[in-house]
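Researcher: Let's do a round of design. I'm pasting the structure tokens now; please hold your answer until I've finished.
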């Protein structure tokens, strides 16, 4: 039995972009470690009392034009280097995407942690670097080189010694490559959060640690229009954590904001998603996303745990469209299952969704997957979708991996795309596997509440024509 495993879908999210958070595969811009205002002017060495300021400049001779030395952050250079590459795209001087604190200097790591003021940030950091369920950076080992993680752990293990004399070359903080300015086209429609009358949505300063808000839009395009590419518009990056765009089958009701119903997601068709670290989505040239009919719903997930009082947000999705239909119409097709039952106390408990041969054999032709967006709730640990087919040239059954997310974190769930698109052939067998831990005294069942579970893989596929169901095997 021959087995070939296709590489994991690249960690590109659907819509969006690369914040580059932890994504070594993404290009990064080299930035000075400090912005023009972020670093204080170097202070002269204080010879009077011998106390260190932690900001003493290095002797000029140590700085070269190529590698300007920057004032000490109090952190050893190897530690600072890892924090810059793996953490500061979110935990920068001005933390982004709901990250609660900066990780840019020794003192940042020594202050009490927001979640547990009896411990220092560096102490809580150890937990999160080793946390399998909610690792930092999000995605854990699949996002961060274990050697980099070890640098941080070793330093903290050694007592997190300050290095006031350190002079580190300017570092690299990965920059966001998502956003309308990175699209190859000019977006002509937008779905943005707002108050319903053209102004932004005021995100509360209290009680918005984990806030889901929905906004509805009438269909903005003429029949026959297709979406070709889209990008996140991340307006107030301090608090925007995650967003999903759905197509509703009926007309838009009130524009919102209104509380989201997760069950709605099942009645709607998935269109686009963004989470920190995800890319813009550019459809392959032969395919355009069907935008006909219905209305649109933008689901925003905010995290204002820092309590900012001045947040008026206008984030959402910007899309390029064409009125000249492309060769193939793309649409959404969902995999997974509603049949979830995880016993109390179970660990690494698998649940399977099957889209079988008897269904795919009815598809008119090979289907291309442009994007896969896994969706589980708080207790979801891992999700994968594998495709099996009989391949005479391999002498037996061949298995390919369409999606593999070994460290699922619902706070950071993004879409994954592959270039060229993943192909599912007529007659293939598609198995989606969701793995859960259940720390509760009750069984975890399918449901919309965050303490119930989901096991879904929303995909954008083409050609969608001739595939008559919105799901394959999710509902029996
Ligand atoms: C993609 C953005 C992102 C990246 C990259 C990232 N973080 Fe975070 N971090 C967050 C967000 C959002 C939160 C708050 C939600 C949570 O706790 O999961 C957070 C929370 C934390 C916390 C918990 C703080 C507390 O008070 O409990 C620690 C510790 C942490 N991050 C450390 C790190 C470290 C260390 C790195 C790099 C190795 C890193 N993070 C990379 C976004 C990020």
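Researcher: That's everything. Go ahead.
Model: Designed sequence:
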């Amino acid at each position: 039995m021959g087995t070939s495993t296709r590489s994991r879908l690249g960690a590109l999210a659907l819509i969006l972009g690369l914040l580059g958070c932890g994504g070594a595969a993404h290009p990064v811009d080299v930035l000075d470690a400090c912005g023009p205002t972020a670093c204080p002017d170097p202070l002269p060495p204080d010879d009077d009392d011998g106390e260190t300021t932690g900001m003493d400049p290095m002797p000029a001779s140590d700085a070269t034009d190529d590698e300007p030395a920057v004032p000490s952050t109090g952190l050893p250079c190897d530690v600072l280097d890892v924090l810059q590459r793996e953490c500061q795209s979110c935990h920068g001087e001005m933390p982004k995407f709901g990250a609660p604190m900066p990780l840019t200097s020794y003192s940042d790591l020594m202050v009490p942690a927001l979640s547990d003021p009896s411990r220092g940030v560096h102490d809580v950091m150890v937990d999160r670097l080793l946390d399998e369920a909610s690792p930092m950076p999000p995605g854990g080992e699949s996002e961060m080189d274990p050697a980099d993680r070890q640098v941080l752990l070793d330093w903290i293990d050694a007592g997190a010694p300050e290095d006031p004399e350190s002079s580190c070359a300017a570092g690299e903080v990965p920059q966001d490559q998502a956003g309308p300015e990175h699209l190859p086209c000019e977006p002509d429609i937008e779905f943005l959060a707002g108050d319903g009358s053209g102004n932004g949505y005021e995100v509360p300063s209290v009680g918005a640690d984990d806030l889901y808000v929905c906004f509805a839009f009438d269909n903005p395009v003429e029949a026959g229009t297709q979406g070709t590419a889209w990008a996140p518009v991340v307006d107030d990056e301090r608090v925007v954590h995650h967003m999903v765009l759905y197509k509703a089958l009926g007309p838009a009701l009130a524009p919102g904001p209104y509380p989201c119903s997760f069950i709605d997601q099942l009645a709607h068709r998935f269109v686009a998603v963004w989470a920190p670290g995800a890319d813009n989505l550019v459809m392959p040239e032969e395919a355009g996303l069907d935008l006909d009919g219905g209305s649109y719903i933008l689901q925003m997930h905010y995290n204002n745990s820092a309590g900012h009082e001045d947040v008026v947000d206008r984030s959402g999705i910007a899309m390029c469209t064409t009125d000249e239909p492309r060769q193939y119409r793309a649409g959404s097709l969902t995999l997974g299952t509603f049949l979830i039952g995880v016993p109390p106390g179970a660990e690494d408990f698998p649940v399977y969704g099957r889209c079988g041969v008897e269904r795919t054999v009815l598809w008119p032709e090979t289907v291309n997957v442009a994007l896969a967006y896994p969706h589980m709730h708080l207790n979801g640990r891992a999700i994968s979708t594998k495709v099996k087919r009989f391949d005479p040239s391999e002498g037996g059954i061949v298995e390919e991996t369409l999606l593999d997310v070994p460290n699922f974190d619902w706070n950071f769930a993004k879409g994954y795309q592959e270039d060229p698109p993943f192909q599912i052939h007529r007659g293939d067998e598609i198995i989606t596997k969701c793995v859960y831990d259940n720390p509760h005294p009750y069984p975890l069942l399918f449901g919309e509440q965050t303490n119930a579970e989901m096991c879904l893989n929303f995909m954008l596929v083409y050609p969608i024509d001739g595939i008559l169901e919105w799901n394959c095997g999710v509902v029996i």
